[in-house]
């Protein structure tokens, strides 16, 4: 899927999940915690595509999300792509094809998702708010690039960077102290997993079963049959999928903020 769809899916899943926890597990979150979790999950839903690098010195190419912070994120994407390609060749079996890049390999696997979620949690627990500020800065930037793609493109990476830094500092200053902030790591991990699921419904698929070997292939791409799979950027994705995700996100947000509004219309979500 395209970047905006991934980011929107992360936001919708986090809001819907938060509503479910509120309704069925009596787990309440403050408005700030909800906003942070939604933004981080939206950013996490773009994170795996940082394995699609471009031309660092020209500030061109790569996935849209790789240009979030200009040449800095492009360089990060270049490193991630090379690491992913290295892991691919280190673990490939006889029937795995040769590849010229690492896109849709390591970062599109469940082990990577678990590692990123756990690593974020451990980082925030060990280093407190300074780590939280760094994680929020990065993830809010990705979320801005995905959810407000056209605005981010016009504004440029410098403005996106400044807005991300300001938002991260504000959130960290208002978060309660003395916590490990486990929901931040959870939001990153959930976002990455939602990304994988989103790419599974496209024609290319993802190696979600790695590192389980299947018929002498370690990197088997799993996805829907081509007859029903989505084409990235198609009208079905842009119109139908994004509209459905938007409805889910809005209903969940209203259900969390003002459940009486839904009750007036007899909407059960």
UniProtKB/TrEMBL annotation:
InterPro entries: YdjM-like. It comes from Micromonospora deserti. One of its GO terms (molecular function) is hydrolase activity. This is Metal-dependent hydrolase. The chain crosses the membrane at residues 30-48, 69-90, 110-143, 155-175, 181-198, 240-262. Keywords: Hydrolase, Membrane, Transmembrane, Transmembrane helix. It comes from the Bacteria.
């Amino acid at each position: 899927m395209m970047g905006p769809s991934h980011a929107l899916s992360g936001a919708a899943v986090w809001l819907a999940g938060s509503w479910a926890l509120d309704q069925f597990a009596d787990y309440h979150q403050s408005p700030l915690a909800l906003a942070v979790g939604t933004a981080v999950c939206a950013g996490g839903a773009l994170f795996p595509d940082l394995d699609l690098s471009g031309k660092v010195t020209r500030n061109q190419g790569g996935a849209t999300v790789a240009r979030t912070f200009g040449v800095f994120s492009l360089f990060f994407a270049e490193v991630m792509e090379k690491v992913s390609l290295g892991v691919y060749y280190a673990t490939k079996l006889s029937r795995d094809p040769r590849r010229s890049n690492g896109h849709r390999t390591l970062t599109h696997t469940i082990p990577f998702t678990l590692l990123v979620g756990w690593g974020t949690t451990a980082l925030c627990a060990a280093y407190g708010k300074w780590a939280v500020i760094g994680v929020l800065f990065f993830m809010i930037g990705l979320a801005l690039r995905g959810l407000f793609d056209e605005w981010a493109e016009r504004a440029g990476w410098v403005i996106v960077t400044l807005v991300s830094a300001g938002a991260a500092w504000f959130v960290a200053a208002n978060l309660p102290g003395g916590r490990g902030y486990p929901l931040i790591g959870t939001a990153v991990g959930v976002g990455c997993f939602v990304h994988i699921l989103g790419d599974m419904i496209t024609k290319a698929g993802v190696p979600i079963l790695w590192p389980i070997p299947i018929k002498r292939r370690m990197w088997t791409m799993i996805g829907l049959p081509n007859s029903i799979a989505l084409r990235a950027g198609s009208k079905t994705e842009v119109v139908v999928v994004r509209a459905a995700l938007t409805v889910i996100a809005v209903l969940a947000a209203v259900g969390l903020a003002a459940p009486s509004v839904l009750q007036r219309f007899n909407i059960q979500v």
